[in-house]
Amino acid sequence: MCTIPMMFPLDFYGKIYVLQDEKGNTVGTGTRQVCETLLYIITKPLTPSVSDSKEMFVSQRPNVRAAITI
Questions:
Q1: Higher-confidence residue: 28 or 59?
Q2: CA torsion 36→3→14→29, rounded to 10°?
Q3: Domain limits, the chain
Q4: What gap in Å lies between CA 41 and CA 19, rounded to an integer?
């Protein structure tokens, strides 16, 4: 059993890959580039989001029209 998500080829030519989690469950399938991107997203360290920042202020303008009218 592996301890980190792994990529495995699904076809003989190596054009289709599968990404499996630590338990062997399939996370996704696709080209090698797609699986590498998913692997990066899954394993990258968490960073604080912009919404968690208390210092971000957005100025509101009362006379700005909406982009989509309701």
A1: 28
A2: -60
A3: 1-70
A4: 12
CA distance 55 to 38: 31
Residue 63 tokens read as 């006379």
Q: What is d(CA 18, CA 31) in angstroms, rounded to the nearest whole number?
A: 8
Residue 43's Cα: distance from chain center in Å?
A: 10
Task: Please calculate the CA angle 10-44-53 and round it to the nearest 5 degrees.
Answer: 145
Q: Who wins on pLDDT, 58 or 26?
A: 26
Question: Is-above-0.85 flag for pTM?
Answer: no
User: Does pLDDT of 67 surpass 60?
Assistant: no
